[in-house]
Amino acid sequence: ARSVHQIQSGQVIVDLCSVVKELVENSLDASATSIEIRFKNHGLDSIEVQDNGTGISAENYENVALKHFTSKLSNYDDLSSLQTFGFRGEALSSLCALSKFSVTTAQAQEAPKGKRLDFDGMGRLSSTTLVACQRGTTATVEGLFESLPVRRKELTKNIKREYGKVLGLLHAYACICVNVKFTVKHAVTKGKSTIVFSTKANDSTRENIANVYGAKTLSALMPLDLTLDFESNMPRMAHNDTSSGKLLVKGHISKPVFGEGRQTPDRQMFFVNGRPCGLPQIAKAINEVYKSFNVSQSPFIFADFQMDTNAYDVNVSPDKRTILLHDAAILIENLKTAL
Ligand code: ADP
Ligand code: MG
């Protein structure tokens, strides 16, 4: 049972990015307004995510890391109107199978005391210790993938690249999440930690971008604010009668600058309803538009595609990073025209 659980867990947590994504999304789901992510040795030694969210209630200590435990979904109909990132109850259980995993947590009424919870490889609670703890939750992942030696070796070999990808993902969360302060820290194995980047709890994505990429980058951007109306030409899907047929594209994009010289970093971030995700076809389409105007560099793009939840499918892969847009081709044509 244990090795089957490890293999299944390895499909939920595929790399360093999955770990950080799951833990940060849990913090956001817990209504955190401040999230600190700490890496030791680029995450090889440990990854820690601390938040000031609701904390875990004592009645859930036994269950939180068991497979399929979730406190987030009360009935199956909720799936279509899901407001939280999580609902599968697989992340913590998978992390238990793939690392030494522990949590310290306190709800408002308990702070400044809380509990440290240790779990075994099957996600069963193995000890509960009284500790000093501010309101919120800190999840600690040590020795990621040590239970899967081939995966550990691979991670070790590619750690610099993996860590770079993780920072890119954290930039994306830090830019899209308004009113949440992000702090990212790194330390070498026995060294002191240094701040990699941080944001304030800004109430706009503009200010977030200025915190992450600098005021100079911000000044080279213009707002991206498109409404694509599919009412007339988007074929209705059978299950889709509640759809408004409208799609909003909100964000920021490089002002077209003609000629030489790089004004903005080469960064393209896409979101669907605020969830970071890769949308390579859409990236390609936007780059083509900029190229067709003879703009010398590919633009900085920060674009959130806001649409009805039944216009896409986040559930195609357990790690939820792949998003299938229905009617992507029509969307792309509309987007090109609008740009
Ligand atoms: P899911 O997010 O799909 O519910 P997880 O395995 O990620 O599943 O988490 C299991 C449960 O643990 C959550 O439903 C929640 O009750 C609790 N939990 C995890 N992380 C946090 C956190 N940072 N703050 C509060 N509760 C948390
Ligand atoms: Mg989760």
Please tell me about this protein's structure:
There is one protein chain. The chain has 339 residues and is α+β, with helices and mostly antiparallel strands. The protein has two domains: 206 residues, 2-Layer Sandwich (Heat Shock Protein 90); 125 residues, 2-Layer Sandwich (Ribosomal Protein S5, domain 2). It is 29% helix and 26% strand. It is built from nine helices and 15 strands. The chain has an eight-stranded mixed beta sheet, with helices on one face. The protein has a five-stranded mixed beta sheet with strand order 9-10-13-11-12, sandwiched between helices. The longest helix has 18 residues. The termini are far apart. The structure holds adenosine-5'-diphosphate and magnesium ion. Magnesium ion binds next to helix 2.
Q: Which regions contain 5 or more consecutive residues with pLDDT less than 50? A: 232-242
**CATH 2nd-level architecture of the largest domain:** 2-Layer Sandwich
Q: What fraction, in percent, of the residue positions are helical? A: 25-40%
Query: What is the structural class?
Result: alpha+beta
Rg from alpha-carbon coordinates: 21 Å
Strand order of the largest sheet: 5-4-3-6-2-1-7-8
